[in-house]
Design a protein that fits this description.
alpha+beta, Phosphorylase Kinase, domain 1, 2 domains, Kinase-like_dom_sf, transferase activity
Length: 334
């Protein structure tokens, strides 16, 4: 099957949307809420804004009741320990706990967003986001031992090894989009990085531990209407060394720094880790490229020109800037 055939098949499979499901879900919510629902807006998969006559909520679906209860307990602990810059689970007036077609729904108080969305485009936002993440780590360090039986311990090497394998296993399809020289160099970065991380495995296991957020993307920083920055969405929390969240944050902001090594070292929360070989090896790993291509293929989104363009820019458009950044790190080990 050629590249064109694959794309046409994906387009055919994505003709039908989720409207029937949304209609059933709205009917279910209407049957359970005592207040009349006047609006329901899908935000992303299994997350909905629901507006009643008196209140506005965010309803989020979980695969099990235990996962919902964990999220409720964690956010409550956060607030009790002094971290209030996040959402709060609430109990709306409903006839029974919300459970629909295998999904348990939790309800949080709606945070009215600022008119200007938070992004990593500005230096002020990048600094503020990093500062908020630091506060989050300081607070979770005080109670992470209570969650060690509830949360998994982070294993970044294992996670990234699987991510690389998933990417490389799709090489026949990827060859439709990425020329072989680019693909080969990207894979060489990943292999060099993982080899170095394995040699420095202890760095990633060192205590003290915190509860890691695990997904420090821009959309999980929410500025409210008063201008206060909040950290949201704790679905991927694990136990581990705070360097792992800092590493992910660095990876997220590097494209906005034009992959500048010097600018990245200017952040004091990141700078301290540049003395650690394990951290430097991990900075080379193309986590974003693998993540976005794996998602694009898994969800069959590559026929979407806009989404494909975004991932191609990440992969090819920034290739030489990223290469210069990586070469600086590799030279430090020679």
């Amino acid at each position: 099957m050629g590249c064109l055939d694959i794309s046409m098949k994906a387009m055919t499979n994505n003709i039908y949307g989720d409207d029937p499901y949304l209609n059933r879900l709205l009917s279910y919510f209407q049957s359970q809420f005592y207040e009349k629902i006047i609006r329901m807006v899908p935000i992303r998969n299994h997350v909905f804004l629901v507006k009643t006559e008196k209140h506005t909520y965010i309803l989020k679906g979980y695969q099990s009741y235990s996962r919902l209860r964990l999220q409720e307990a964690f956010t409550e602990t956060l607030r009790k320990e002094g971290f209030s810059k996040t959402y709060m689970f609430v109990s709306p007036e409903v006839k029974e706990p919300l459970f629909f077609e295998g999904t348990y729904f939790g309800c949080t108080k709606y945070i009215v967003p600022h008119k200007k969305e938070f992004t990593f485009h500005t230096e002020q936002n990048r600094q503020e986001g990093l500062g908020l993440l630091e506060q989050f780590h300081q607070v979770t360090a005080s109670f992470e031992t209570r969650y060690r039986t509830l949360l998994a311990k982070s294993d970044l090497i294992e996670k990234w090894s699987k991510r690389m394998h998933a990417f490389s296993s799709k090489s026949p399809l990827l060859s439709c989009f990425i020329n072989k020289p680019y693909f080969s160099e990207i894979m060489s970065w990943a292999n060099w990085s993982l080899d170095g991380m394995k040699k420095n495995r202890q760095f990633f296991q060192n205590e003290p531990y915190v509860i890691l957020h695990g997904d420090v993307a821009h959309h999980n920083f929410l500025r409210d209407s008063a201008g206060n920055l909040n950290l949201i969405d704790f679905d991927l929390i694990t136990i581990g060394n705070r360097a792992l969240d800092i590493l992910q944050y660095a990876n997220r902001i590097l494209p906005f720094l034009n992959w500048s090594y010097d600018q990245l070292t200017g952040y004091k929360q990141i700078q301290q880790f540049f003395q650690e070989d394990g951290f430097l090896y991990a900075l080379v790993y193309p986590a974003d490229i693998f993540r976005e291509w794996n998602r694009l293929i898994r969800e069959k989104l590559y026929p979407d020109k806009d989404k494909l363009k975004q991932v191609m820019d990440l992969t090819i458009g920034q290739f030489y800037e990223r290469k210069n950044f990586i070469d600086q790190i590799i030279r430090a080990f020679l």
